[in-house]
Amino acid sequence: MKCKSKSLSIITRTILVMSCLLILSGCWNSRELDELGIAVAIGIDKDSDDHYHVSVQVINPSEIATDAPTTRPPVSTYTTTGETLFEAFRKLAKKSPRKIYFSQLRLAVLGSEVAEEGIMPILDFLYRDHEFRTSFYAIIAKNAPAESVLSIITPYEKIPANKMMSTLETTEKNWAATKGVSIDKLISAIKSKGENPVLSGIVLIGEEDIGTNISNVENVDSPTKLEIDELAIFKEDKLIGWLTEEESRGLNFVTGNVSSTIITDSCEGEDGKLSVEILRSQASMKSKINGDKPVVTIDVETEGNVGEVECKIDLSKPESLDKLNKKIDQAIKEIIVASIEKGKESGSDIFGFGNVVHRDNPKYFKKVEKDWDSQFKDLEVEIKVKTELRRKGTITQPINKEG
Asked: 274 versus 14: which is more confidently predicted?
C-alpha cells in the first residue's frame, strides 16, 4: 500500500513539473535589445490636412556608450504622419531600422495647436496602448512645433529628453513656476468635475537650424536653447490660455506644490530689495456655505530664511523679524490673488476649488456641478498666509548699515 502511495506521489509531481514547463516557457513576445530603438520622447502636432504629425526621439546607443568625441548626435528623430495616431506610430517602421520601443518613454511634447483642439484623443491612445507606461510627463510646446523642440541638440545632457525632464523637475523644486504632470494625473484632472488641469510649457529660444546641428553644443553658450516656461491653462481637455511666471507660482502655493522658491519684495520707505528663500510650504483648503454661496478658505504656511537684504533693517530685533514676516505674507498673498484672478478670468478652475466644495458640501455641489465653471467665476476666496523666518544668515545687519 505504501509503494502504491509513493508511486502516485511521484506521478503527481511529474505531472506538476511538466505542466510548469508548458506554462512557463518564457516571454513569447520578447525581443533582443539590439533589435529595438529606445524612444525617450515623442512629439505630436497636426498638419494642414488635419493629419497627426508624430515625432519620436530615439537613442543612438553607440554615441551614448562612449565618452570619446564624436560627430554623430546622441539621438535621432523620426517623423511621420497618419490620419490617426495609431497609424502614424505604426508608419514609423518605414523610417526606423529598428522596432521602436516606447516603454522607456520620459516625455510627450504636445503642439499648442493640437492642445487647443483637445487632447483627449491623444490621451486615449497613449493610455490604451500597452507599450506606453503612464508615468511619463506631458508638456506643451509654446512657440514652436513639437517636432522642432525634439530636434534641438542640448548641452550638458547628451539626451535632450533627459535635459527637458531634469529642467522641469529642477524648476519645479527650486523655483515653483512649473509642474510635472504625468499622463494618468492629467486624465484624472480632465475627468474631474471640480478641477481643470495645467501643463508646463517649453519654449525654443534661438534659431532651429542652428539647434539641430552638433555645433550647437560646441559653444560655451549654446545659441539655441530649450527653456521650461509657465503653466498652460486647460478647460477640460482644451488649451485656453497661459499663466505668467508669478501666477504659476501662485497656483503652486494654493495647491501646496511649492518645495522651494524665492520671494522678493521692496524695502519699506526706501530704495532696495530684500529676498527670502522659502524652504517649506504647505497649503490646505476648506469650504463653507454662506447663505446660498460657497466660500473657500486657503491656509498657506511657509518657512524660510533671509537670503539678501538691501534695506536698513536690524534683524537682531524681534520686532524687525515680525515686520519682515508680515511683508512676506503680503507678497505671497498678492501672488496667489493674481493667480486666482487669472483663473476666474479664464473660467477654468485650475485650483481644484470645486473638489473642495464637493468634499465639504457634497449636496450643494451636486446642484451646481454642471454649471460650476460659471459658479467658479463668482466664488468668494479667503486667503490666509503665515510665514516663519527661521534663519537670518551669518549677519543680522546689512554690511552697508551706517554706524
From this structure: 274
Measured distance CA(304)–CA(286) in Å, rounded? 25
Give the helix ranges, DSSP H, for 146-205: 146-151, 160-174, 183-191
Residue 17's pLDDT is: 59
pTM listed for this prediction: 0.88
pLDDT of the residue at 291: 87
| Burial class of residue 140, CB neighbours in 10 A (0-12, 13-18, 19+) | buried
Residue 323's CB is within 10 A of a number of other CB atoms, namely 12
Options 3.40.630.30, 3.30.300.210, 3.40.50.11030, 3.40.50.300; CATH of 246-391: 3.30.300.210
CA distance 307 to 119: 42
Q: What is the C-alpha separation between 63 and 67, in angstroms, rounded?
A: 8
Helix axes 318-346, 245-254, angle to 10 degrees: 100
Q: Which residues contact 59 (CB under 8 A, 6 or more apart)?
A: 37, 38, 40, 74, 75, 159
Kindly give the residue spans of alpha helices, DSSP state H, lying in 237-317: 245-254
CA distance 221 to 197: 35
Sign of the alpha-carbon dihedral angle for 369, 374, 375, 381: positive
How many Å apart are CA 152 and CA 203, to the nearest integer? 11
